[in-house]
Structure formats: structure tokens, C-alpha cells
Design brief:
heterodimer, A: Rieske Iron-sulfur Protein, four-stranded antiparallel beta sheet, three-stranded antiparallel beta sheet, B: alpha/beta, FAD/NAD(P)-binding domain, five-stranded parallel beta sheet, elongated, binds flavin-adenine dinucleotide, binds iron/sulfur cluster, binds FE2/S2 (inorganic) cluster, Nitrite reductase small subunit NirD (chain A), iron (chain A), 2Fe-2S (chain A), Rieske_2Fe-2S (chain A), Rieske_2Fe-2S_sf (chain A)
């Protein structure tokens, strides 16, 4: 199946219908990311240990439409948490999804929470 | 009290006032300046900036108050209409009379408008004053309101015409430059460089029409087109005439001063006209039978005139005027200096041309090869300042003059020394006549630390700006002599250079990235400082990429090179390029099993492409079982040591190059460094292994091995330099050990040995002193560091497949056994490749 950007739309916390149990928090590398599957979606989940926060966004890089963002490096620029795509190092805000170093489409971001040691990602459907 | 009257408040007239005001003696004079334009003098050279910001104020050379403070009476909006030499008086447009003791004519020039039928039509402009620009902008707005595809033509493809072309393009009109000559910038360029420039300009959207004589301007009232005769025409909505200048010498004519045949007021080398009390400077002055349409000669004339009036009679105009120029278009480098082109019997020309890259460089050298006569640069004028200086100061040329134009500064073979080698008297900024000595003084004695501060203090760079790179170099070098450096911090999270961080980690024994951030950094890190720290930890503790996997570059994190579609390549080490049939078959079997695309790499090994993330540990498990280990093709570490077959098989071989290559590849494998590094070993000087294009290379010669370092192939090729000659193998290895360790310790991030060596103060001589003569007293430490690397090597893929926690990283989904269904392959010559990107 070839990915389609329109599969991914940002979800706000108040429009979450499903809190999907993605897996035990311990499975996600510290200060790094991993990918989860929800229905036909690939979602990158980041365990930003240094900030004690979690982020979720589409795994699809809008630059060349590859499923790679979860393998990217995370960091921060002017207090804005970000991920750098492993293919060409385009960077995206993990908060807003906005492309920080260029004019690529923003990526979709999803609400995320950790309860009882499990990671939950919020979807609207 | 004597009176000086200055007619014309343009760039040169202003410079005259500035230089005059700086003299103590000027207090004894009454100074009156008349300017015909409605405002005080402004920077005409940067006139085009007005299109961007419409800010006339920012172009001003000095505010009105400056004139008052300096006791200069400035009368703007007032034309001087007559000179009465007998009574030593002038009259002005408003019929006032003033008397003078000295009269300085700085009336400049006006654009030359060729007598073409129809030039008076609406929509035809010249390009000289702020008012011209305002009128053009208004007219362009009108055109744009009517149609979306408005066009503007520029008549004249000289320096100014091209600048105007870019300006109308920025106004949103389609630009067309129409030139009568068969080439652009006919005075500065030869036809080949003009071709290259034409391609570049057309690429940025400026249309060029050469060899066109305009017969008529078409249109009823307002311009609609240009007619070139013989049914050839161009539809345009606006025309800017930039066909040269004519000196504004009308005052000289009416009072019978000596005039040139084609205009201009004749002056001697004291800037005096035929009336010794009347001076002419700037574009109105005809000196050596020439009008100089550039500010630098005008400024020099102003200086001379001030001195003459102040009775420093020895200050006269230079006999030869430098007409070198650099076009100040954004994105298009064009420069010429000295004699740009000449017939073959007058000198030798060396030409380098690369049409695809839009590069053209030409230098003209005297027949004896000793002096630089001039040159042209299109596409890359970075070396303009230094070449221009070599030309002006008659500096000796390197033995191979072509090195001056091939390989640009800071990268491959730079042939000129640093700007610091210039004599103190060398004029760096010719617009403002600032010498190298003045720039350096401003840093060393007056404590200015940035180009900005130096510019403010000395005025250097404030003219055409062409000297900026060189001033920047001088500032940097002068700071160095003070023991200060320009801060090289790696990113917003660390105020340190790589070398400083290296020392911090080592001295404080910092164990991991988080600790480093906590102790000396700020924030939460990024994709710049994380891999850099990873490289330092690896260099100091020889830890594999598996320990702190999330600070590694993504290739290191998964111990494989990520490819176009998110799959990976697998490259086992094949030391020295020697591989047995049994190993070949094993690789073939594994590649077939996992359906991998295979290819021989440039480094004499085999690359297997198309492995999915979850397949990596499976593939490596099998490879390791067959006796392979990681080739680290993904790391900033040793890639390969290329070898020829050497004396084992080759009839010319002087020694066993393969054995040496295997030994050295196994010695350095696994070492992480600021950038990747490669080696080569050749069995004789025929150099089949191309060892001199590697970071280190050995070549067998009569009586031992020659050792080379700092070579590079790739994007900026550079031949390695000879570190030691005819040494035995152990010594050869020892020297390269130390070279590598010194590089690892001191190089900035992502800098290959070639670029590092290029920038190393003292170059190869210094390096020899460090690694051979132990001038820094550190070889023991370097040797121990290398020995530690060699002793603690482990194959990180073996570590990964044998450690369950690491192995777990290789799944596409954390919550599903499924694999990535986004990956698509297509077939290619009986193998497969990733589907094209859309
Ligand atoms: C767009 C543009 C870009 C340029 N780029 C460069 C460049 O990159 N490098 C470079 O070296 N040069 C460049 N030049 C040329 C440079 O601007 C001129 O060499 C310089 O301005 C000449 O100075 P000047 O004082 O002789 O003449 P001007 O600056 O023209 O000043 C003469 C002044 O005298 C006034 N005047 C004339 N007659 C009278 C009178 N009878 N009474 C009162 N006032 C009078 C005029 O109105 C004018 O204000 C450029 C010019 C233009 C137009
Ligand atoms: S470099 Fe010399 S020894 Fe090596 S293959 Fe070439 S000719 Fe033979
Ligand atoms: S030369 Fe360019 S395209 Fe070819 S392998 Fe290197 S980076 Fe890729
Ligand atoms: S595919 Fe992500 S940056 Fe190019």
C-alpha cells in the first residue's frame, strides 16, 4: 500500500474518540522514537525523556513520502521540540507539526498519554 | 577667509567635503556646496536597494546636520548656471551670485540617451537618481495593474544594464536586456565568459538579446515595443536606457575651459582644469583622456583636489587608474580586473570553463609567467579580492599559475597565501582607499573585533562591498595574532567548538550525552550536537554506536545506511579488497535469500541493498556465521583501504601492497572520527590503488614506503601530501597512527582530513613537526590512544545480534509483527530497485 498524506490529520485532545493502547512505555527508546500501527496508519511515537514528555506524529515524511520519521533524531530548537527526518534532515515541530527548516507540508500530530506504564495515542476515529 | 565652492553634491562632491572637513586647515575656509538634486548626497552605487525598501534615508551619505556641524553651507535644489572666471563668481538658477577663490566642479554625468526615434515616449526611463527610480516604480505599478505579464527592456548590457535588469525583474516585470554588441559587459568580458554569464542570467529569468541595434521605439504616446529592423522587434511595456554616460560638462563649455573632443573637462594630475583655480573631479573630469565611471577613481580625485587646495602639492593622481569591477547582483558572481582580455602575443591566458556549473575563470599572465595582468571571473568570484590584490601589488605568482583559478579557496589546492601576506600598504577597499595596514590596526590597536565594527571605524567595505571576504579574513587573522578567535560554537546547545568539547569530555570524564548537556550545555540538544557528541564519546572511549543509540546519526543508530525508500544497505568488511571464492559464495547465497540488490562499491567491496529494518539482524547473523564483520559503511569511521595486487602478482610491484592494506584496514577498523576516512596502498609509483586520493596512502618505492596524508576524491578532490619518504612499514604505520589521532582530537565536526589539513596553520610542515619531531610533546599520548583503539575493537553488529535488547530495536512496528507495506520495488536488470520518487 502506498501512503497517502490525506490519511493523516492532526487530532486535538478534545476531539479524541479512541485512546489506542500502543504498547508498554518501556518499549520506546529513551530520547528516541519508535513506530506503531493503528488501523491503516503508521504513527511515530517519541519518548522525549529529557523533557519528560511524549509526542506522536505521522511516520510519513511529506518530503519524499517515506515511512521514516520514527527513525529520526529528536531535539529542540528555541524551546520547540522537533524531529529530523533521517533521509534529508528536514525538521518538524513535534508540537505543531510545522516544517521548521523549509516550506514542506506540516505533519499531523496526535495527543498522547502514558497511564499505568502503557502508552496511549488519541485518534478521532 | 578664502571661499571654496563645490558644484555638485553627488558621491564625489560629498567625498570632497568629507576629506576637506577632516583637515584642520579647513577651518580657514568658507565652504559652499550646491546640489541640483532635491536632497543631500546619497549612495548612488547602491541605488538599486531603493527598489527593495524605498528608503531614501538609508542611502544618505551624511545627514544634513553633518554639513552644518562641519561649517559647510549646503544648498540643495539649486543649479549652478554660470561661471564668470574673470570675476571669480558663479550664478545660480535662482539668480544669486557668489564669489569663489577655488571652484570645484563635481557635476558627475548623466545617462547617455542615444538619438533613437521615439525615445521621448512615455515609459522610457534612465537609471541615475532616486527620482528616476520613483518614476520607474510608479510606471511599473501601472503596467501591473493592467496586465499580469508586463515586460521591461533594458537598453544596454553593461554592468549597470544588468543591475537594472535584475531590478525590473524584482519589480515583477519580465526583464529583457538588449545589447548592441555581440556580448554582455563588452568592456569587461571576453565572448566565452559572456556566454557563460548569459546562460546563468537566463537561468534566473533575465532574457538576453545580443547584437541588436534598436532603430525605433514603437507605440502611440507610450512605448509598446522596440524595433530592430528587418522585421525583428520586441514587445515591451517599459524601457530603461543604460547605454553609457555623458559627463555633465556644460559649465566648463560655457566658460571656455579646455574640453575633451567627446566631452569631459580636461584636468591634469592635480585635478586642475585649464584654469588653475577651478578643479574638476569625479565623472565630469577627463583625466588621461578618459572618463572613469566608477567611484574609486572619483574618490581618489577628491583626495587629490583637497590636498592641492590645502597646498600639499605632492599629492597627485596615480598615472594608472584601476578599473577592476565586481558586479553586485545577488546570486551572480561576475568580476574582472586589470586587462581582462588581450591578444595572444601580449601575454598568456589560462582559462577554466565549466558550462554546466556556469563557471568561467580566466587569468592573463605576462609572457615570462611572472606577473598577473588581469582576469575575468564568472560564476565564482570568491577569489576576486585576492587575485585583484596580487595584480595591484605585483605579487609573485606560484609556479603553476593555473592553480590560481582551479580549486577555490579553503577547499582544494589553494595557491595563494593568506591575506596577511599582503604588504601593509595594499589597498584592500579601493572605494574607500583603506589599506590592509589600516584594517589590521583597527583590530589590533583599536580593539574592533568584528567586520561590522571595522567597517564603522575604517569605512572599509562600505563602498561596493567587494572587499568584504578579504576584510573578514583580515579581521579573523588579526584577532588570531591577539590570541583571540572567532567563536566556533557548534549549535545553540553548546558554546564550544568540537575540540573544546573533546577536551571537556576527556578531562571531566563525562560519561554520556545527558551528562554533557547538564554540565556544559543548555536545552535538550539537536541533530547537530548529538551525533557530534556521539563521535567524541566513540573517539575517547571507543564505545560502539549501540550504547547511546538515540544520539547517533540515523545510519549509526541502525548500523546500516538508510536508502532512498527507507530500506538499508548491508556492507561487510572486505579488508584490502581481498575476498575468497568461499566468502563470495556465502555472500551470494545470503543476498539471494533476502532478495538484495548487489553492487561492487568504489572501495573494493560488495554492497547489498534493499534490506528492511527487521531483516538487518537476520542478515547479519548469517554473515557473521560465515566469518564476516561489519564494514561500518554507515559510520564516520574507516571505510576501506584500497589496494592494488602489488608484488604478489604484478610484474612491477615493489612490495606487497595487499598484505599491507589488509593489515592497516584491520588496524583502523571501528575507529570513529570527525568524518569518514579512507586509505590506499599501491605496490609502486604507477599508483593503481589511487592512494594519493585517500586520507592516508602508502606507495612502495625503492627502499621503503612513501607515506601520504590528507588526500580526497569525492566532491573536492585533493592530492595527498607527502608526510615521509622511504620509511619501513612500522614507521609508516606509526606516522599515520599519530596523524589520525591528531586529526581525531582536533578537527572540527564533519571535516575530512583534506579540508582539515588545508586549514591547519603551517600545513604539512607543521604536521610533520608534530607527528615526526614531536614538537608538541604529544606523540606518546597519540600512540597510546591508537593502541587503545586497536586493543578494544569489537564488531558492533556481532554485539547487536547477540544482545536481545539491541536486537529488539530492529522492528518496524512496536505493536505489530507486520512489516512496512509502504515499500515498493520495481525490477532492474534482473535485480530490484526502489520505486522512483514521484
Ligand atoms: C545604478 C548605479 C549603480 C552603480 N554601481 C556602481 C558600482 O558598483 N561601482 C562603482 O564604482 N560605481 C558605480 N556607479 C557609478 C557611480 O555611482 C558614479 O561613479 C559616482 O556616482 C560618480 O560620482 P560623481 O559625484 O562624479 O557624480 P554624481 O554622483 O552623479 O554626482 C553629481 C551631482 O552633481 C549634480 N549636478 C550636476 N550639475 C550640477 C550643477 N550645474 N549645479 C548643481 N549640481 C549639479 C547632479 O545632480 C548630481 O547630484 C553606479 C551608478 C549607478 C547609477
Ligand atoms: S601500483 Fe604498481 S604494483 Fe600496484 S598494480 Fe599498479 S603497477 Fe602493479
Ligand atoms: S555520488 Fe551522490 S548519488 Fe551517488 S552514491 Fe554518492 S551521494 Fe548517492
Ligand atoms: S524524505 Fe524526509 S527529509 Fe527527505
Amino acid at each position: 500500500m502506498i501512503a497517502n498524506l490525506s490519511t493523516y490529520e492532526s487530532v486535538k485532545t478534545d476531539s479524541v474518540k479512541v485512546w489506542f493502547k500502543a504498547g508498554p512505555a518501556s518499549k520506546f527508546p529513551k530520547n528516541g522514537g519508535a513506530c506503531i500501527k493503528y488501523k491503516d496508519k503508521q504513527i511515530a511515537v517519541f519518548n522525549f525523556t529529557r523533557q519528560a514528555t511524549w509526542y506522536a506524529c505521522q511516520n510519513l515524511c511529506p518530503h519524499k513520502m517515506e515511512m521514516v520519521l520514527s527513525r529520526g533524531m529528536i531535539g529542540e530548537e528555541n524551546m520547540q521540540p522537533k524531529v529530523a527526518c533521517p533521509l534529508h534532515k528536514n525538521t518538524f515541530s513535534l508540537k505543531t507539526g510545522e516544517n521548521l527548516n523549509g516550506t514542506l507540508d506540516a505533519i499531523a500530530t496526535y495527543p498522547i498519554k502514558v497511564e499505568d506504564g502503557f502508552v496511549f495515542v488519541g485518534f478521532s476515529e | 577667509m578664502k571661499t571654496i565652492i563645490v558644484v555638485g553634491n553627488g558621491m564625489v562632491g560629498y567625498k570632497f567635503c568629507e576629506k576637506l572637513a577632516a583637515r584642520e586647515e579647513s577651518k580657514n575656509f568658507k565652504i559652499i556646496v550646491f546640489g541640483e538634486e532635491p536632497r543631500a548626497a546619497y549612495d548612488r552605487v547602491h541605488l538599486s536597494e531603493f527598489f527593495g525598501n524605498r528608503d531614501a534615508k538609508s542611502l544618505e551619505l551624511a545627514p544634513a546636520s553633518w554639513y552644518t556641524e562641519n561649517n559647510i553651507e549646503l544648498v540643495v535644489n539649486e543649479r549652478v548656471t554660470d561661471i564668470h572666471r574673470k570675476t571669480k563668481t558663479i550664478t545660480t538658477g535662482s539668480d544669486k551670485e557668489y564669489s569663489y577663490d577655488y571652484l570645484v566642479l563635481a557635476t558627475g554625468s548623466s545617462p547617455f540617451v542615444p538619438p533613437i526615434n521615439g525615445v521621448e515616449k512615455e515609459g522610457v526611463f534612465v537609471y541615475r537618481t532616486i527620482e528616476d527610480l520613483e518614476a520607474m516604480l510608479d510606471y511599473a505599478e501601472k503596467i501591473k495593474a493592467k496586465k499580469s505579464d508586463g515586460r521591461a527592456a533594458i537598453l544596454g548590457g553593461g554592468l549597470l544594464g544588468l543591475e537594472a535588469g535584475k531590478a525590473v525583474m524584482d519589480m515583477g516585470l519580465e526583464p529583457h536586456v538588449v545589447e548592441f554588441a555581440p556580448k554582455l559587459m563588452p568592456r569587461q568580458l571576453d565572448s566565452r565568459s559572456s556566454n557563460v554569464l548569459q546562460l546563468t542570467l537566463e537561468n534566473i529569468g533575465i532574457n538576453i538579446h545580443l547584437g541588436k541595434a534598436t532603430n525605433r521605439i514603437l507605440g502611440n504616446g507610450a512605448i509598446t515595443g522596440m524595433d530592430f529592423g528587418e522585421d525583428d522587434s520586441l514587445e515591451v511595456d517599459m524601457l530603461v536606457i543604460s547605454a553609457g554616460i555623458r559627463p555633465r560638462d556644460e559649465l566648463g563649455k560655457t566658460c571656455n575651459l579646455a574640453m575633451g573632443v567627446r566631452g569631459g573637462i580636461v584636468v591634469n594630475d592635480r585635478m586642475q582644469t585649464s584654469d588653475p583655480n577651478i578643479f574638476a573631479i569625479g565623472e565630469v573630469a577627463l583625466y588621461n583622456q578618459m572618463i572613469y565611471g566608477l567611484v574609486a577613481p572619483g574618490y581618489e580625485m577628491a583626495e587629490v583636489a583637497v590636498n592641492q587646495i590645502m597646498e600639499s602639492l605632492e599629492v597627485v593622481m596615480s598615472a594608472e587608474i584601476d578599473m577592476s569591477t565586481k558586479l553586485k547582483l545577488i546570486g551572480v558572481d561576475v568580476a574582472s580586473f586589470g586587462v581582462p582580455y588581450m591578444p595572444a602575443d601580449k601575454g598568456l591566458s589560462i582559462i577554466y570553463e565549466n558550462k554546466t556549473k556556469g563557471l568561467y575563470k580566466r587569468i592573463n599572465v605576462s609572457l615570462d609567467g611572472k606577473t598577473l595582468l588581469g582576469g575575468i571571473m564568472v560564476g565564482d568570484a570568491e577569489d576576486y579580492s585576492i587575485l585583484h590584490q596580487m595584480y595591484l601589488n605585483n605579487l609573485p605568482l606560484p609556479d603553476n599559475a593555473e592553480e590560481l583559478i582551479v580549486g577555490s579557496r579553503g577547499e582544494g589546492g589553494s595557491a595563494f597565501g593568506s591575506a596577511m601576506d599582503l604588504p601593509d600598504t595594499a589597498v584592500i577597499c579601493s572605494c574607500e582607499a583603506v589599506t590592509k595596514g589600516a584594517v589590521c590596526c583597527s583590530v589590533i590597536d583599536d580593539g574592533n573585533e568584528t567586520v561590522k565594527e571595522v567597517a564603522k571605524a575604517t569605512k572599509a567595505t562600505t563602498g561596493c562591498g567587494g572587499c568584504k571576504p578579504m576584510v573578514a579574513d583580515l579581521v579573523k587573522e588579526s584577532l588570531k595574532t591577539l590570541g583571540k578567535t572567532v567563536k566556533e560554537s557548534i549549535c545553540e546547545h553548546f558554546d564550544h567548538s568540537r575540540q573544546e568539547l573533546y577536551d571537556i569530555v576527556k578531562l571531566k570524564g563525562v560519561q554520556d550525552y545527558d551528562q554533557l548537556l547538564d554540565e556544559v550545555g543548555k536545552g535538550d540538544g539537536c541533530e547537530v550536537c548529538k551525533p557530534l557528541a556521539a563521535s567524541i564519546f566513540a573517539s575517547i572511549y571507543n564505545e560502539t554506536a549501540n550504547r547511546q543509540e538515540t544520539i547517533q546519526d540515523s545510519n549509526d543508530r541502525y548500523l546500516a545506511n538508510i536508502q532512498r525508500n527507507g530500506t538499508y544497505s548491508v556492507v561487510p568488511r572486505v579488508a584490502g579488497g581481498e575476498i575468497s571464492p568461499k566468502q563470495l559464495m556465502a555472500m551470494g547465497r545470503i543476498a539471494k535469500k533476502y532478495d538484495l540488490y548487489t553492487k561492487i562499491t568504489g572501495g573494493q567491496r560488495i554492497d547489498m541493498f534493499g534490506a528492511k529494518l527487521h531483516e538487518l539482524p537476520l542478515i547479519w547473523e548469517e554473515l557473521i556465521a560465515e566469518g564476516f564483520e561489519t564494514g561500518q559503511a554507515y559510520g564516520k569511521s574507516l571505510r576501506t583501504v584500497k589496494s592494488c595486487v602489488g608484488s604478489t602478482w604484478c610484474r612491477y610491484g615493489m612490495d606487497e601492497s595487499v598484505s599491507f592494506a589488509i593489515e592497516i584496514e584491520n588496524r583502523y577498523k571501528g575507529i570513529r572520527s570527525p568524518h569518514k576516512f579512507k586509505g590506499g596502498v599501491s605496490g609502486c609509483i604507477r599508483e593503481c590503488a589511487e592512494a594519493r586520493s585517500k586520507d592516508f596512502g602508502f606507495i612502495a618505492v625503492e627502499g621503503g614506503w612513501n607515506v601520504y596524508v590528507g588526500g580526497n576524491g569525492g566532491a573536492t578532490p585533493r592530492h595527498a601530501e607527502l608526510l615521509a619518504e622511504k620509511v619501513d612499514k612500522e614507521t609508516a604505520i606509526k606516522y599515520v597512527d599519530r596523524f589520525m589521532m591528531f586529526y581525531i582530537k582536533t578537527a572540527p565536526p564533519l571535516t575530512r582530513t583534506s579540508a582539515w589539513l588545508e586549514k591547519l596553520e603551517g600545513g604539512i610542515t607543521y604536521l610533520k613537526n608534530v607527528v615526526i619531531n614531536d614538537s608538541l610533546g604529544i606523540v606518546e599520548e597519540l600512540d597510546a590512544g591508537m593502541q587503545n583503539f586497536v586493543n578494544t575493537y569489537k564488531c558492533e553488529w556481532k554485539e547487536a545480534v547477540e544482545t536481545p535488547e539491541i536486537r529488539e530495536r530492529y522492528t518496524h512496528f512496536i505493536n505489530s509483527e507486520e512489516t512496512d507495506d509502504n515499500i515498493e520495488f520495481v525490477s532492474l536488470r534482473e535485480q530490484k530497485m526502489p520505486k522512483e520518487w514521484a
